[in-house]
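For reproducibility, we list the full input for the zinc ion complex.
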Amino acid sequence: MKTVGFRSFALYILLFAFLGGVGWLVFSLLLHGGQWAMQPYNGHIYDDNPTITLGEIQDRDGAVLASTQEGRRVYSESETARRALLHTVGDSAGYISTSAQYTLRTKLTGYNLITGLNDTVFNRMGSTVRLTVDQDACVAAYNALNGQNGGAIFYNYKTGDILCKVSAPSYDPENVPEDIGENPDYEGVYLDNTLSGSFTPGSIFKLVTSAAAMEKWPDTWSSLTYDCWGSEEIGGSNITCLGEHGELDLSGALGHSCNLYFAKLANDIGAADLQKTAEKLGFNASLSFGSIEIAKSEAPLSGSNQNQLGWAGIGQYTTLANPYHMMVLMGAVANGGEYVQPRLTGDSGLFEGLGSGGSRRLLTSVQAANLKALMRSNVENYYGDSFFPAGLNVCAKTGTGEVGETQDPNCWLVGFCDNAQYPIAFAVVVEDTNNSLGDAGGVVSAVLAELTA
Ligand SMILES: [Zn+2]
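The corresponding predicted structure, in tokenized form, follows.
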């Protein structure tokens, strides 16, 4: 009897272990089934299995960006379009993990818990996904980058539609370069610079310092004046400016992008208050775009000395900016202080939610209106409206982020069109160049021309 009792006890243990295992399997399948199905190591899904048909990916006008023909994944007809849209659409090996082909794989395969992927009875087709991007605008951005590395992202700040998203370096997904692993030209090629890159902001950070002044002195910020004589010792060593601007108020200082004005202003604001405003605007925060974690914009200022704080106030020192975040911030300025969540598809539930869960208000409506006026003055009085397509009322700020001795700076242009017909906000960064308005501004101008044609 003793032996039988022990055997049934052992059987019960085995039974519980088995049921527990089955339960875990079902639970995991429910949770991760679609992701497992499209992992890169399941290469057959992309390659030669005719029983799996990935759905089409289209642009906002229905142009086919990716489709499956005879079991093979093919992309846009033109090679330039394939390169321009690589990071947004995706690659056949699944290396670009922020792409639509990767993040929307469950929808594209039509993966289904009941039938799984190997369904031959119903000859199931994957679903079509229509993206919000415009293929021609992406091509315009890629061409305007002209072989330089960087990122360009544009969205409609009223609807949230991402209209253009391009990252370089890139490659043709239908002719993957054989030396992609060794050639330094392809370093970081699988990363989308707009989502996964953060760059020294340079003078675009002067917008954050301006917002901090508005927060600290809401009634008197516009009449704060400082002198610039080209170079001045602040906190033990010199901070230099590109010009000798004399006495300036904030609007003039932003237009001339005066370093000494903003270095002194940052010190009068103080590290704690400057960092507090930066954090209100989304710096030092983890932002997400659907399932994608966005690279952080950073402004860690505590413990900085006067000289470091001066450099931070002009977007140097340890400050970093991410293009997606800069675009959202520009959308908030354009939109009365509150941003609209960007999206890459029209479907709800895909690429929704920025992760903060709370308010989308980054600035008061008064602060937003003041920043808008300052940025409009930049274009009207300093950069020139003729630089952009006519009638768009562009508001913008240039930036030149110094990155060290061996490489030229990162050049930025961030801003938006203050235009009811074309409510477009943007952030463009071009690496290793000295010409913000010429290079980053050239990309903005080319894309706006395409989007408003
Ligand atoms: Zn100056």
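The longest strand covers residues 394-401. The first helix runs from residue 2 to 37. Both points were considered when choosing residues for closer inspection.
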